[in-house]
Amino acid sequence: MKTADFNFVLPKELIAQAPATLRDQSRLLVFNRKTNLLSHFFFHQVPTLLHPGDVLILNNSRVISARLRGIKDPTGGVVEIFLLKQNQINDWWALTRPTKRIRLGTRLLVTTPGGKQTGISAIVIDKLNNGECRFQFSDVTDLSTELDSIGEVPLPPYIERSASECDLQDKERYQTVYASPPGSVAAPTAGLHFTHELMQNLATAGVQMHFVTLHVGIGTFAPVKTENVEDHPMHEEWFEIDASTAEAINRAKKEGRRIISVGTTTTRVLESVAYQNQGEIRAQSGATNIFIYPPYHFRIIDALITNFHLSESTLLMLVSAFAAPGMLSGRAQILSAYAEAIKQRYRFFSYGDAMFIH
Q1: For 253-271, what is each residue's pLDDT tens digit?
Q2: Which of 141, 197, 252, 260 could form a disulfide with 55 if both were Cys (CB 3.0 to 4.6 A apart)?
């Protein structure tokens, strides 16, 4: 398939710049794959759409404050450091902006978003052709423990904020209420709609909830630059699934109960593990670079809760594959659903509304 086949035009005003007033008050577009019908709900109505015995799987990764500011020593030029992956304590891969002025040996003095010196410095010890730089941070015991106080919420670029505007609301709302192990540089956004009360309502309704971890990397959201979809290289992302989650999924599959994935990141974990283990889910951790696009035969999930995704993105391709497993027609079905969402003025992307595909 061609990457351009997944293109759609979105009015700029439908790109959500802030979350809904209450998490579960966002809208929910429901797509029935069997009937091809669309219906409109609010997210707090999710319990009415699920069945007792359904197993809901969520990604519990916590977003780190991955965007840092630095000043070049000795020239004073301002540099943005976007942390991507920790190799070991104080040793990180990152993207920088501007990129061309950063060379091996460049030393940066890390500042707060307001420009105050932190006393932490960083030296570029490696640089890749794609612009990624490897930094060795010094004058700090463990940079990861300081990020909440010196870093900024890594909001995507289509959410327009200045450094001073990235406030406490973003620190809370660009994070799921069940976030636990830190490691993501972007939120697993389908989970942003859940509240503790909604999760309690789901439990009362007989829905089982379990968690996996996938630390979302920049690769999930990297644009597809190849003409042909299958030529796009997916970055690796670290994941973990524990024994209780694996057992719950396997038991539900044997008993014919639904597995409902919350988000494309959760889906990638489940389908990757199933692919590695001949359709069975096992407790394991590791890295996955699975790339799901039409036609794809899903091994585990029966329904999907997901946000509205960017044009020509790998996330849109995954959702298109799930709309019609094993076929190519899902692309047209999802683009048609998106057209209806645009017509009905749904809000798109990270802070936007959601879909339930079943």
Answers
A1: 999 999 999 999 999 999 9
A2: 252
**CA gap 155, 308 in Å, rounded:** 16
Taking the model in full, what pTM does it have? 0.95
Domains and CATH numbers, the chain: 3-63+173-357 (3.40.1780.10), 67-152 (2.40.10.240)
Q: Tell me the C-alpha to C-alpha distance, in Å, between residue 299 and each of 94, 101, 259, 325, 329.
A: 34, 46, 10, 10, 19
Distance CA 142, CA 152 (A): 17
- Return all residues near 82 (Cβ < 8 A) that are at least 6 apart: 66, 67, 68, 94, 95, 96, 97, 154, 185, 218
d(CA 135, CA 210): 36
Query: What's the rounded Cα separation, in Å, for the pair 134 and 283?
Result: 32
Can you list the positions of beta strands (E) in the chain? 27-32, 37-42, 55-59, 62-63, 67-73, 78-88, 91-97, 107-111, 117-127, 133-138, 182-184, 208-214, 237-241, 259-262, 284-288, 303-307, 354-357
Q: DSSP for 24-52?
A: GGSEEEEEETTTTEEEEEEGGGHHHHS-T
Residues making up the chain, counted from first to last: 358
Report the mean per-residue pLDDT for the chain: 95
List C-alpha distances in Å: 338 to 88, 247, 267, 305, 347. 42, 35, 20, 15, 11
Six-digit token pair at 140?
A: 């700090």
Q: In the block, which residue shows the tokens 């659903």?
A: 337
d(CA 279, CA 238): 20
Buried b (16+ CB within 10 A) or exposed e, 104-130: eebebbbbebeeeebebbbebeebeee
Structure tokens at 208: 């089982």
pLDDT tens, 135-166?
999 999 999 999 999 999 999 999 988 655 65
Is residue 46 within 8 A of residue 59, CB to CB? The reply is no
User: For 103-130, what is each residue's pLDDT tens digit?
Assistant: 999 999 999 988 899 999 999 999 998 8
CA 171 from chain centre, in angstroms, equals: 16
